[in-house]
Amino acid sequence: MTDTATDTADSASAPGPDRSAPADEVALPDNRYANREMSWLDFNARVLALAEDRRQPLLERMKFLSIFASNLDEFYMVRVAGLKRRQEMGLAVRSSDGLSPRERLALVADRSKELSVRHARCFLTDIEPALAAEGIKIIRWRDLTTAQQKELSEYFHAKIFPVLTPLAVDPAHPFPYISGLSLNLAVLVRDPGSDVDRFARIKVPNNVRRFVVVTQSVDLSQYLPIEDLIAAHLSALFPGMEVVEHHLFRVTRNTDFEVDEDRDEDLLQALERELVRRRFGPPVRLEVGEDIDSAVLALLVSEIDVQPEDVLQLPGLLDLTALWQVYDVDRPALKERPFVPATHPRFAEGETPKSVFATLREGDVLVHHPYESFATSVQRFIEQAAADPNVLAIKQTLYRTSGDSPIVDALVDAAEAGKQVVVLVEIKARFDEQANIKWARALERAGCHVVYGLVGLKTHCKTSLVVRQEGGSLRRYAHIGTGNYHPKTARLYEDFGLFTADERICSDLTDLFNVLTGYSRQTDYRTLLVAPHRLRSGLLERVEREIIHAKQGRPAHIQIKTNHLVDEALIDALYRASAAGVNVQLMVRTFCTIKAQVPGLSDNISVRSILGRFLEHSRVFYFANDGDPEYWIGSADMMHRNLDRRVEVLAQVTGPNTDQLRETLDMAFAPDTASWELQGDGRWIRAGGSKAVDYQEVLLSQLASRSE
């Protein structure tokens, strides 16, 4: 749900806001930025609210519990870890909201504990009983019949027991290393006739499924947590000893790291070394059961070396990310209705696919995922290019892709067919580093020219360029998207993609690939806004243009749809726009440090967040421009990491395709659309009224109508 929304660099370490103000304007107040971490926790609270919403299908509610848990894991592994590192280094520099790392950590600890307990109780007291009423039961060992216990004991001894390794803790056995996000049993055992308890740790294996299927039928599905199965057989692991008690615990570690790109060494090798180090990052959170023995807890806190404020005592099951396994149960009545993405009508004649190249010669095409198919648009574009004998070259950026990537397969086919294939694989994409290293090597073996990215920058833009021989000349075709070349997330993430044969855009992309692969230092482009040099300034110029229109009495309007908004320079520009009378409407999914509806500061700024079946992921920028409106789409969020430390691209959408963007933005910002709106006091409240419209469902309905 977060799309790795955890930038570790503080605003204080990046170019700061322009605090100067024109002579005829009042300077902006120092307290104009909200706390970044709290804004993220507010976002995850909205995810939790979807799990608590009984109007949602039951298994979808459970899915949101899993998403909440994985979101929070990543938040701790990167964002909280980064704050802890700065605190430990004695860096007292304050962020844009005026707080030190220590003060921010204190806020995070209190709020995350509150949300974590609420999350655990939502499953324990609401969703788990509701699932049981539907015949989907997570049961305990004591609930099994004798026959079931016998069958599962045989399974344990055959499949689980051989891989378990109980580790004692005593003068001859130091406390073992606890890997991040692993489930572990803390076990106290005792020699018969002794009153001395001894501690041992058992790691729950992570290469087997968390829930053992006990019963699977049309109307009854029973699951046993694997830790229950292990706990029921502790005597087999400690023969001759008395098992006194056991408790489950889980550790989260710092997985944030930086590769020293200034060293004279191969970037790929340096990254592989850092990936090994990531496994041994310092702990940042300890999760334990609500009923844990105080002495055992004290031992864990001491040996794992966490602070008391980093301990979460939770009721019920730990690690609810595993609920995705239960979501796979075949119970369609308890899930959202399935849908089949439509093929964009420009890419097919009835059921017959059209040549993407012939279509683009007739004009640009804008696709909207997941409503319109990734497979019959983006994937087909690359596959047709790979198979077309007239295609001479394919150039592609890859930030994230799937384990079975048809895009990579098509690029391999193209290289093996003798085409020139250039692929920039961003091996520094967080949590996808290992997978991207694998793809890079596979592409190299196939004969592709592989580039690993630029020193000091991540290449985050989503771009493809195809060069085709047509008659006596070459023609280029391009795709620029807001989402990754990832066929699986393309069914879950909402994104736009622009296909074009426009010579100016294709020339810009040609120049950009020369920057990415060679020594070109080009910073200005004909039509594109490209970070890190011109994207922020290009947006600021357009905001300033709206301010001028407003001051001259003309209508002025800005709409921005983004995942994150924390860049102070842009926020300050939007505050000035509000003061000038510009209507500023913002749709922000996650991090949001602008303050809305604050008298005298942001009277004309409204901020909303839409969470639903799909992850709102596209970045769209609209400027009214006194009747000559501009629409831009791209990969960049309004954060320092995107604008200063990444290669990002925004492309302008023109012509009839702007109608689709206009319709989408109108629905997203309509008063009756179900959403969350940011209040002047910092609270997010539900909006849309009692008959609120789910705009994702409206888009799905329109998809169904077009398909019919």
Automatic annotation (TrEMBL):
ATP binds at residues 71, 493, 589, 617. InterPro entries: PP_kinase (IPR003414), PP_kinase_C_1 (IPR041108), PP_kinase_middle (IPR024953), PP_kinase_middle_dom_sf (IPR036830), PPK_C_dom2 (IPR025200), PPK_N_dom (IPR025198), PPK_N_dom_sf (IPR036832). The active site is at residue 460. One of its GO terms (molecular function) is polyphosphate kinase activity. Its cofactor is Mg(2+). Its EC number is 2.7.4.1. Residues 33-139 form the Polyphosphate kinase N-terminal domain. Residues 148-325 form the Polyphosphate kinase middle domain. It comes from the Bacteria. Residues 1-14 have a biased composition (Low complexity). Residues 355-521, 528-687 form the Polyphosphate kinase C-terminal domain. An intermediate of this reaction is the autophosphorylated ppk in which a phosphate is covalently linked to a histidine residue through a N-P bond. Mg(2+) binds at residues 400, 430. It catalyses: [phosphate](n) + ATP = [phosphate](n+1) + ADP. Residues 1-25 are annotated as: Disordered. Keywords: ATP-binding, Kinase, Magnesium, Metal-binding, Nucleotide-binding, Phosphoprotein, Transferase. Catalyzes the reversible transfer of the terminal phosphate of ATP to form a long-chain polyphosphate (polyP). PANTHER family: POLYPHOSPHATE KINASE (PTHR30218:SF0). Belongs to the polyphosphate kinase 1 (PPK1) family. This is Polyphosphate kinase. The lineage of its organism: Bacteria, Bacillati, Actinomycetota, Actinomycetes, Jatrophihabitantales. The gene is ppk.
